[in-house]
Amino acid sequence: MASTNKDVQYLEEVSHLLDRAKELQDSASSFLSKMKHEEQSILQRVSALQSDLKKLQACVASASASETLDKREAEKLEEELSRAKCMIADGDVSSLLPSKSNGKFLRMFLGPISVRATRKDVQLKVKEEYNNYRDRTAVMFLLFPFALLILRYAIWKGCFPAWAVQLYQAWLLFLYTSLALRENILRINGSDIRPWWIYHHYCAMMMALVSLTWEIKGQPDCYQKQRGIELFLTWAMMQGVAMLLQNRYQRQRLYTRIALGKANRMDVVWGETASVEGQLWLLYPVLFILQGFEAYIGILLLMTAVTSSVSEWQVVVCGGLLVIMASGNFANTVQTLSAKLRFKAKMKRSKSKQDLDQGSLANLRLGKSL
């Protein structure tokens, strides 16, 4: 009899818990349905706002070009419109916007799964980890080739062993692959990364992969045979120094742009960006020297392939990729430098006009007082 009472009690408890589970399921379904309805309403408002912003921006640009609107007022209006766009792209609204497609590269490694973070704090954590990874790899980019060049004469008697060079090329392949993966994920999460820098890492990945199949020749005449390797390691050290300079100075500039509403919190800095005027004269010469040296190594490899009696296909591929990367880097750097110089000239004209207006107002007040 006691056993029967316990069975009934257990059945009642199970039934009660089952009812609670069904009630919770109904509440969650109702909440998700309501949230989806509100999300659609917000997306419609976002679409309408983006359309209005685009139309107004076109009107301001047209009025400024036809001189029916003062240039200085047009610039102020454009800045305010840019802030409004940043609020949409960088605020909580961005989590509701449709995400970009993964692209072939991400699908090849991860499949069709979505890598977009719905929470802003998670997105910012992804970006911060990317910046920290760049800091770590910049140090390795400098120390790894430096160690190889020192060991060449200290231990290896002026001749690189094949395993050391191939280990370095394997590390480069891992580095550029991981950077390309992280940048594609950042792009999907709203970061404004120039497409060229992702393509640049694709080219670097291909070059590192090809280099792994390249036979490292030794004695006799080891110095002449490994001249290209020495030049490449020297360039890599210079690249490491440039990366450290960029990481240190440019991030501070990006934070300033974010605070002014001219950049999103998910944006990152890369090789073509610069900040204050002192950096302009420090970083850009370093970047141009690096790009010239990179092109020189590529041309040297191509000339070796033409003049050598036994030409290896790896020489032609690596030389061509180095020239392509140097040309693309140079074009992007010149484009950004031109934009910055135009912006500085516009700011000077605006400041000169403002000083002239203030001077005219002061003279007018002085005339009235007399």
TrEMBL record:
One of its GO terms (cellular component) is membrane. The chain crosses the membrane at residues 137-155, 167-185, 197-216, 228-245, 281-307, 313-339. It is a multi-pass membrane protein. It is found in: Membrane. It comes from the Eukaryota. Keywords: Membrane, Transmembrane, Transmembrane helix. InterPro entries: TMEM120A/B. Its main location: membrane. Belongs to the TMEM120 family. This is TMPIT-like protein. It comes from Amborella trichopoda.
